[in-house]
Amino acid sequence: MPPRLSTDIRQYLIITGNYWAFTLTDGALRMLVVLHFHGLGYSPLEIALLFLFYEFFGVVTNLIGGWLGARIGLNRTMNIGLAMQIVALTMLMAPASWLTVPWVMAAQALSGIAKDLNKMSAKSAVKSLVPIDAHSRLFKWVAFLTGSKNALKGIGFFLGGALLSILGFQSAMIAMAILLGACWLFSLAALQHDLGKASSKPKFREIFSKSRAVNILSAARLFLFASRDVWFVVALPVYLSETFHWTFWQTGGFLACWIIGYGTVQSLSPKILTFSQSNDDSKVDYRGAATRWAGLLALIPAAIAAGLYFQLNTYAVIIGGLLLFAIVFAVNSALHSFLIVHFASEDGASLDVGFYYMANAMGRLIGTVLSGAIFQLYGLTACLGVAAVFLMTTTLISLALPQTMEK
Predict the structure, then answer these.
(1) Helices 7-39 and 135-166 meet at what angle, rounded to 10?
(2) Is residue 297 very low, low, confident or very high in pLDDT (cuts 50, 70, 90)?
């Protein structure tokens, strides 16, 4: 790495690289599991249940992981996450006869723990690398980290569909484990050893946030991500495969492009939300911004559901609606990601960030289970209706956020 770069920037680039590598395998693994088991004849609800422990342990991991990161350092929690993902991939290298539902759920549980340790570590670490009053820089760094991660997740979706077609399920797991193993070895040597460690050892009872702003934002985040996953995780890939008769390549490729576009918009969110350029960040109306963008997002799944109900052109309704949803959801997500890093405590930021991403994981868990169940019973239109209700709830909760940068 060029010597002219400051220590903070070097650490930021290493953290971002770790996050990229992990996300690439995470996105590919999700698509591989959905498409492989759908091809084996599993129902949408059965596929959703394969991810049940992935999401459930994400809730537990974020709650405990934030406390752990503050005690032992974020470099360790990030490296533990990378190692656990390698173990999860190794479990899925097993012969086809071993890939029973309990075995796959156990592997997904490890992967869920790994993913949320990695994400919590990356987001919390950025807080310690940016000066306390540099709000615009913090927003840009968090937006780039989050947006680029999601773009890589989209590439992972495409990679998952491609690897399934070219290598098959087990060989794909071997290839991804080798890639991630190389990144893990580099990370062990390169990450700063005291990164994100609190000055005093936080007690376990401090895992629950005492900040009103963090609690409100966490509740809004729960419904925001439940609204996405209730139709995106299981219902949408299966719908595209069944209704449009798309192959693994086409389904994986389309969802990859969606995620890449979504991640790109996240990275550009500081420019879209022009208030981040204000000379006085303390007077910016963040509550108004969060409420307006959540309200706008609620209209999109409602409009898609209406289009499907009235039997308008299915391709135009689904693809056009997905493009609009990607743009507006990306701005909402980036704004939330910045606000939690800002609202988090200066000392031991991972405690607040972990609590917030616990709510994020709970939203994904609720959305994932409902995605399989509602789609199987009532179809995609019903999933979209539930998404719209969740987003209206996010909008109402956002009204209680602090109006300015108070914590």
Answers:
(1) 40
(2) very high
The per-residue pLDDT for 152 is 78
Q: Which residues contact 52 (CB under 8 A, 6 or more apart)?
A: 105, 108, 365, 368, 369
User: Which band of pLDDT confidence, cut at 50, 70 and 90, is reported for residue 339?
Assistant: confident
CA distance 70 to 351: 7
Q: Which residue has 């790994």 as its token pair?
A: 114
* C-alpha dist (Å) from residue 403 to 210, 271, 392, 400: 19, 20, 19, 8
Return the number of other C-beta atoms located less than 10 Å from residue 6's C-beta. 9
Rounded to whole angstroms, the Cα distance separating 329 from 319 reads 15
Q: Is 182 exposed, middle or buried (0-12, 13-18, 19+ CB in 10 A)?
A: exposed
Tell whether the model's pLDDT for residue 407 goes beyond 60. no
* CA pseudo-torsion sign 59, 63, 69, 74: positive
- For residue 268, pLDDT over 80 is answered with yes
Q: What residue type is assigned to position 141 of the chain?
A: W
Of residues 186 and 390, more confidently modeled:
390
Tracing tokens 């499907």 back to the chain, one arrives at 308
Which residue bears the tokens 């005093």?
Answer: 200
Q: Alpha-carbon distance 152 to 21, whole Å?
A: 8
Top CATH class, 7-398: mainly alpha
Average pLDDT (55-83) is 77
- Report residue 110 as tokens: 């490890």
Domain coordinates in residue numbering, the chain: 7-398
Distance of CA 309 to the CA centre of its chain: 30
Residue 145 has pLDDT above 60, yes or no: yes
User: How many whole angstroms separate alpha carbon 168 and alpha carbon 160?
Assistant: 10
215 near 209, Cβ under 8 Å? yes
Describe the crossing of helices 286-309 and 212-232 by its angle, rounded to 10 degrees: 20
pTM of the model: 0.74
Cα separation values, 188 from 38, 86, 113, 193, 229, Å: 37, 14, 19, 9, 33
